[in-house]
Records
---
Amino acid sequence: MAGLSFDLIALQLFAGLALGAIYVLFAIGLSLIFGMLTVVNFAHGAFYMVGAYVGLYLISIGGNFWICLVAVPIAIGLFGLAVERVLIRPLYGRGIDYPLLLTFGLSYVMVECVRIAFGKTGYPFDTPEVLQGAVDIGVGYFPLYRLFVIGATAVVLLALWLFLEKTSFGLIIRAGARDPQIVRVLGVDVSKVWLIVFGIGTAIAGFAGLLAAPLQGVIPEMGGTILAEAFVVTVVGGMGSIGGAVLAGLLVGVVVSMTSLFAPEMAKVSIFALMAVVLIVRPQGFFGRAGLMS
Amino acid sequence: MTNKVTKAGSISRRRLLTTASAGAALAVSPFRINLLQAEEAPIKIGFPVPLTGPYGAEAQDQVRAGQLAVAQFNDAGGLNGRKAELVVRDDKLNPGEAATRTLELVEKEKVNFVVGSLSAAVQLAINNVTKERGVIFNSISQSDAINEAADFSKYTFHEALNPHMTSGAVGRYAFAKFGKKVAFLTADYAYGHEMVRGFLEVGKEFNVENLGDIRHPLGTTDFSTLLPRLQALKPDILCISNFGRDQQIALKQATDFGIKKSIQIIAPLLSHASRVAAGPQAFEGVVGGCSFYWGIEDKFASTKAFNDAFRKMYDGKLPTDYGALGYGGVRTVLEAVKGAGSVETDKVVAALEALKYDDYKGPQYYRKCDHQSVQSVLVIKSKSKDMRNESDVFEVLSTEEPNEKYLRTCEALGHKS
């Protein structure tokens, strides 16, 4: 196929960054929970899916997309708090595979419950009216809604950064991740810190699910595919590193997009090829701390 | 289940002996035949379809309508009182899973026939099993390969359309109307490949220019990296050959990218269930083909009867295209059973070959050489306005009448004429 113009390559690059923004949004919640709690949350995709369904439900009872943007993360965050308190907490200090297996099973339960409540077939999820259509970004037309997703991701990242770096509670979280024992000795209730971190992580997952719904509709299995891609992002970025997840997410998006341009059939494989290369050159990922998994 | 096993396991020796001797006495008694007939097992039809996964919505419709065909057969008295039963299995859209489930249906469930599948690739796996075991298989999803001599067997029937017929009908309509420059977005497996081949073949008659074919894996959830390229090719027509959830997402995202402004999107098949699941926006204005649309009930009494029966069984819902295939696939087999007066494979094969039927969409018959159902193809357009009910989603633009000239010839398929 001929016709490779500068505009096309630029547009393709942009499409890659937009796709990367979705990966980032999904992966930071995963990375946050792992970095602070060393819990590999296999139910992250299920929280994402439930977020989309809660949005769908709120709209069906008369809400709108803007209300959902606030209500969904709160609802999923509260749900996450309950899960941490009841299911995850008893497993701390038992080795990394316990919570992994638990969340893996939990994801099956959640998907099955949604199938029972909402049915196995998907639902349409209309793009909010003001965000419909495509706009000219200089090198070609690009869907307005995807631009909105990039913006929303940036806002979430900024808020998360401010929270972790500039508030005293953020300081405690970071200290708790580095050395929980010392923090405990200093009289801080570490279990409360972990509870809140898990809640924030799942709230972001629910938010990401809501944002993904207008892109691809809503279906019980929607968390499955993105989970695999998000793990690649967290591994490439370094398990537990939020900055790494951002860089890796954008990189994965661009790699997929550029491979799509030249060899579309390789696009899916390219993600895993990238991961393999990174793991050979730098086993802990871009910004990963070595030994976190052990 | 466990309960039963323990009971059977602890059966006393005395009991065993009495039962055995009673059985032996029965075996020689003249009453044996009557008794056996009264207790005759139901006619079992194995039904492997992908209930979970990207084609789930369509598969569930297949099951619903298949159940209707069975219910009608039983209400009409079955085969001299012998009832039929549908044994549904989830093949998960995976050839390996489908082969295992089919083998289980044949060996363990002892099904008499197999009807089902919803994938050009998976049906070949099912067919391999049934062919080897000498069980009739009526496929209810698209495939060209299943007609070809290499995969065909005398036990193989194909109630669905095949890609050659479908893309032929849609291509003849679209290339004459919307332009000659065509780009393709294609699901990278048998279904997509066969559709593109069909479009390019009919395209020769119209001097169609192929600008490029971009392939995506089955189960893709984001097309945003493929669409700019397709747009840059500046085709008159973008032909999207994928199915189920892939089709829903591709059309939705193509709409978001503003592709419909300058390009006509066509699809070989527009799935009714997908159109409902994706909503009117995504499918708006897209032209494609289908084997059945409930709206042709003004034209055919059989369609009206099928719609009414379906409505009655499922709270006023109307059947979809793939639902109709589930109905047709099961019904023709049961009709042949009745005609043959037996479930014996060879007799039912002969009865199916002789069948001239009009069960839900006008006249059809199975062509002798490849057992392909010769039938009409509808060219439809998705609408978003003036809908009379929730199933009123398509407008029928034209109908290609049943005619063997729209099929590949028996010789081309490798059959001896």
---
Amino acid sequence: MTSNGPTTTPEMAPGDIAMDPRVRLEDLVDRDALTELCQSFHVLFGIPVRIYSSEGTLIGDASKEHEVCTYVNTLASGRAACGATVGAVKLTEPGPEGVATHPCFTGQQYRIVSIAYEGRRIGRVILGPYLPAETTEIPTSFADLDPNLDLERARRSLVKVPRAKAETVSRIAGHLQATLDLILFSGHKTLLTSQMHLASVRESFRELTEKTQRLQDAYDRLKELDRLKSNFLATVSHELRTPLTSIIGYSEMLAEGIGGSLTDEQRDFVRTIQEKGEQLLSLITSLLDLSKLESGTMSVHREAILVQDVLVEVQKTLAPVARKKGVVVRLEGSMTLPRIKGDPERLRQVFINLGDNALKFTPKGGVVSFRANVLTGGGADGDDGLALLAAVKTQVEVRVCDTGIGIPPAERQRVFDAFYQVDSSSTREYGGTGLGLSIVKRLVDAHQGSVRIEENTPTGAVFVVTLPVAGE
Amino acid sequence: MQLNFAGREVTIKLVYYGPGLSGKTTNLRALHHLTSDESRGRLMTLETRDDRTLFFDMLPLVFRADGPSSPRTGAPRSFTPSDPGLGMSVRLKVFTVPGQVLHGATRRLVLQGADGVAFIADSQISETENNAASFLDLRANLKEMNISLKDMPVVIQFNKRDLPAVRPDAEIEQLARRGREPVFRASAVNGEGVLETFFGLLHLVWTKLEVEHQLSRTIGMEPHEFVPVAMRKLGLKQDEASLLRACVGGSLDYKKEGT
């Protein structure tokens, strides 16, 4: 429950819309427009019209002083009597019916009617002075007013005052009240609509703010969980590597006969242990790299380097595997490229991973090629400010092409996700952990470069790596 | 409820809630039509699109509560707004909310400060789920304002009884008897059941305000006189008991929670 005193609160609570304690006449109508309305009534009936708010402020009027009034005001006692009458009229409270009549000593009359809205009085209309239709003689209150009164002049000017029957005045007042009621209703409706608009927007904003906060909290929580996951992965990888190194080391020593000579069969077994141990180690290393990249703790030392030097090394590293598979690894394209800004160790990892991947999916007799080019006017279509920036942007592009099974367009984004395989059956056929490409993507990102996949004709995939040139 | 001692006014806010197109605005139009000229203001419709309510409709009903127990003299009294002999001015403001789901924010705004809710349900069996969803929406919105549904006087109206494929009377009565809220049947488009629902709600609201604020003493009348006085002032000939007999279930007594 709320109790409202006579004062209204400046800022309305949304719940108070249309429950507002006071509708004020001044808030609902335009004063100039109201004055125009009064003038039109004045022109129509010749009777002055004044509209006051409930606080007694004049907010609309149309009046022209009657000749008799002008004359009365030339006399000292007339001025006093006129002032008293006008003051009394202003103070007259329309009765329970909302109508009151107040006489003037000259025989003229005022009609006071209240303006009500939704059962509340919010102002009043004062009509007059006018001359009651039945008046025939100058009343004694006027005749005896002042010894200097020129009776003939008074009579002459009094008859010029518009005459009206009581019922005519009632009709005029009623019509004015009805007109005002319509204006007030429209004004109130508009006021409520705009308040409601504001309140709705505020309420929707509040709702959205709350939702955003909830989303932000959920996002923060997920980010924290992700960080914990990366930490866990890093710790576990490290703990796994330590014993594994011993396994590999000791099996190597065994295989070399340090612990005594082995039979051929025993040596084979030990070699298998060593080989699988190394596979496991490389998997764990990849995992560790990935978690470092994800947690942002992998350091990338970028310096001005030549990408072709990296590629030559990569080719050498891949050569034994390629030879075993019967696949040719070729370096193509320009060998005079500008320096790029990169970490040679990390870039080697990028291209070895890409080369490994290409070799894995290229059948015997196929070709894996590394083609390096300079790209001017770089930037992907649709990049911000491409029309302005492309002209000054130089990049080095390395295309790693294979003649394997290719990657369907729908999969081209997802192959960079960790542990993703285009088809789980390919794991069985081709092996791999699904980490190589996600490491590539993250390393290239760390170099402010980009990697994407294109089609190779007639068959195969092209991994396109672009890296910014040093000095940009 | 707003009580303004200086202006000798009490304002009661009643809200018609319910799913879209269940007939909330139609109820208000019928109420406007059935009450007398002197006591009702214009039916204000705020913002509509395609004849659907976007903000709210509002019908003000105003009367002076100088009940039969207040002294009556033949001579006209001098009129001043603060004359205690004249009793209080009672302002009933009846609102509808926009029913469509997307206007949730507006619904909450209109619901704020409500003293009672008439829930207008669509009797058609196909609308059963919409009715339930809207009622849950009412409960959720009240909860957001820290108001328990149990603390809010609520009456339920099954509207559109004139349509085919509506839930049969017997079923409604059976459900109503098991429920807490008074249930009324209506065909608002024909003006049937509208007054019953409205005065059923007013009865419930008044009983609650009486329990909580002893409002009848403030107004200067006996507690049981309020609704009959309201009916007479609104130009109605019926008596309260006959209207309230239309209630098919639930309780018309307000019980303060925990008692």
